[in-house]
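User: Round two. Same drill as before: sequence, then structure, for each protein.

Assistant: Same drill it is. First protein:
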Amino acid sequence: MIVPLALLWFTGNFTTAGNDSFSRAPRNCGRSSPTRTALGLTAIPAQIGFLSKRSFDAAIRRYDKLAGSAKPSPYTPTKTSFAPSGRARLAALCEKLRAQGVSPEIVKRLAEMLEQADDLTLGRIRSHALADYWGVPRRAVLEACLWATRTGILDLQWDSICPHCRGAKQTSASLSGIRSQVYCDNCNIDFAVNFDQTVELTFRPNSALRIVEAREYCVGGPQVTPHIVAQQLIAPGEQRQLTLPLEAGRYRLRSLELGDAPAFGRVMSHFDVLREVIAEEDGALVKTIGDAVMAVFRRPVAALRAI
């Protein structure tokens, strides 16, 4: 049986200066109610009043520093643990990477990130995001990461991204391992893989250099879901009306999936159009092949006109 030691409430806030910017005196407050046990009455005041207080204060001051930075770093330097001889191996492989013609500056920044970044950052290294932060061409960073996989610094992975929470719900070392249908346990939705929208190439350190634990933080938070402006949960059979302030004109309403019935209807309409074109050129429909057709014509020129 697990006996709780305390109930804890925590709130945090930043005081604002007159210019609406964050002040450099962030304040946070917490309140705990220890259970009436000897351990609760002695351990909780020490934990909450001293240890947790220092941790909360340090974390919030880091947030304040990031919020006041014109260009926040993509990762926070932290204490890292390399595999045995991992640092020496990284240095040797970086020299090999430079010999392949990769920019020394990119190699230097990549090595610094592998040495300093936390597991959450290194679990999914996104080359384009790094390029934008470093201010270098995206293609150059992507090619550097690909070369790094050849030298043994990085491993590449294909991630299937949930369209709602943007989390990697399926990961494979090759595209052939990506399934067409994926389930997101966080959002409780099924979604179809769309290779140009929901599949992303990312990287992670080779395990011979540094072992990274896969982690997921703040699922569905506003920072990782900028594509969601607002949302409403609608129960089965429930209806909601929404008035959008749109300007006059034509708009297209799109969804992730067309659905079997509408898709079948579109294919049949497609065949109707093809039958008319074939008939106009005095041809005949032989059979349908998926969404294509096989037809015959009296003369080759008629077939060309039908195309």
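Second protein:
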Amino acid sequence: MAWAVAKRALPAYQHVNSPKKFTQHQLFARLALKNYQRLDYRSIVEQLLDCPSLTEAIELDYIPITRRCRKRPID
């Protein structure tokens, strides 16, 4: 649902020369899912890896993994 709303409301890319890795629609849908489920970035990446139907629904070719997601918590 968030992806469809973002697709109507946002341009695909913020700038003409922006990298074409992810659309704003995909990034917004990922952020909305993260906030709705009250997850951190690492958990949402794990969920996207475990659930290919989610990645297909928002048309992700690959999962965006940021540096923040790769860091391990200090025990």
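Residues 2-6+23-70 form one domain.

User: Perfect.
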